[in-house]
Amino acid sequence: MTARRDILAACLGTLLLRPAGATPERLRAALATFSGGVPLREGRVTLDIAPLVENGNVVPVHISVTSPMTPADHVRRIALLTSRNPQPEVLVMHLGPRSGRAEVATRMRLATSQQVLAVAELSDGTFWRQGIDVIVTLAACVEG
Length: 144
Fold this sequence. Notes:
By secondary structure, the protein is an alpha+beta fold. Helices cover 17% and strands 41% of the residues. The protein is built from two helices and nine strands, in the order ααβββββββββ. The strands form two sheets. Strands 1, 3, 5, 6, 8 and 9 form a six-stranded mixed β-sheet that branches. 26% of the residues are buried.
């Protein structure tokens, strides 16, 4: 039989093995690295992700940015960031005026309920964002 002490030790070990990157401070650092410290503005970015996700293993995400995508006015980069995944940087996509549209669709894993951010850098040096709080009922990366 397994003693309560052994079960508690196993649970504590599991908590200690939680990825070190899963902190809001790491998200802030990733945002500062991506934007170079330039303030982020709300708007122009549309992040389409379900606010309630049953299974965090495969979560569809669609990001679009309002831009004419001309040589004078276009999106340079789009980043997808999370606040509680082991690594906050999920995706960084580089674009240019020849891209046609500033859109990306992908699937991602979510370790637990958290905020998901989409940030876009425009050719004029401004940064725009949208964040959505996502509730995950069955987390990814923790199933045994």
